[in-house]
């Protein structure tokens, strides 16, 4: 397919997503099935266009002064792909399989309109109802922060130190263009271009042997900040598919007791294979069975309870731009209640002197600092470990990390703009000794 034909396909697909209200991933899959002639490179390029349009949905429509699939695609080419009117016009020549030629109004918009007068939620490309929440989090920087959350994310890998060292993985994976991550001492990063396909990590020998896992650097740092140690009793209370469970197991060096559970047993399904591949032998996976408490035998005895809390996922917008436009205010209210429930459950599990590491992939204050303040008010036996102390686990990077991330009395907030990671909040709480 020519670049112009790919552009036509993207306009058609955006129209389908709008009209049928289907998730972008589903629309892309169905389009690929119906258009077998499109090669893998074509499908990757079209998918890249679609995701970029979703990342720049509001600002692209503003630039074009029209909110149609075609307008959003054209506006995205200017804002995200940095093409000028002439280059865009060359793609829209009206030839076979090409978009229709630019109208005078479109050419004028591409030439003259900017985001200078756009409202914050338009310039930052997020739902208007979230503007107050993001203003609370970032103030006048919210447009810059949100714009960074709309950029394409790199592909990050975590080296499983139970089986390998980063120094050995760098040459082993050199063909993928890996580089060390800026902060995590066990991370590797693959930068991806606009039309690049995700490399087949799952087919790599190092992945099959359990030496690497796909994990955003921010998620790696969140696990590291929990400071899990060999010999401790650690509970991963919202383990899901096990990403942070695996990171905790490596930090514990296979020594101690690691318990992984989740309220939704369906989320736990992949964890068994991942633990086996990673060579983890000290993890007890507890799947919910009816109304019985899977942790009924744990009575204030855990050294560390890690909560990868259910949240709105606002910190992962650059990986899932479709989600931010589908998010509704009611979803935040549900997540806030879920977080209270899991925090209160963790309070009963931590031993005197034990810790709770509370983590969200959200940038919203209500899910982060405010949730921690409310928890300490309900449980005065707990106090927040000063964030500068938790950052000490990053050794030589601690000072630079402290300068980059947002620090509050309740914890750390990482963002794409500040740390180059997904948006993660981390707070470590300690239970006092009676």
Summarize the structure in words:
Strand 6 (257-261), helix 15 and strand 7 form a beta-alpha-beta unit. Strands 5, 6, 7, 8, 9, 10, 11, 12 and 13 form a nine-stranded mixed beta sheet that branches. A four-stranded antiparallel beta sheet has the order 2-3-1-4. The chain has 434 residues and is of the alpha/beta class. Helix 1 (3-20) crosses helix 2 (24-34), helix 1 packs across helix 3 and helix 4 crosses helix 5 (69-79). Helices cover 43% and strands 15% of the residues.
Low-confidence stretches: none
| Multimer state | single chain
**Largest sheet features:** 9 strands, mixed
User: Helix amount, in percent?
Assistant: 40-55%
Strand tally: 13
Average of per-residue pLDDT values: 94
Q: Counting H and I runs of at least 4 residues, what is the number of helices?
A: 21
Ends apart, CA distance between termini: 70 Å
What form results from the Cα inertia axes? globular
In percent terms, what proportion of residues is strand? 5-15%
Category from helices, strands and their pairing = alpha/beta
Radius of gyration: 23 Å
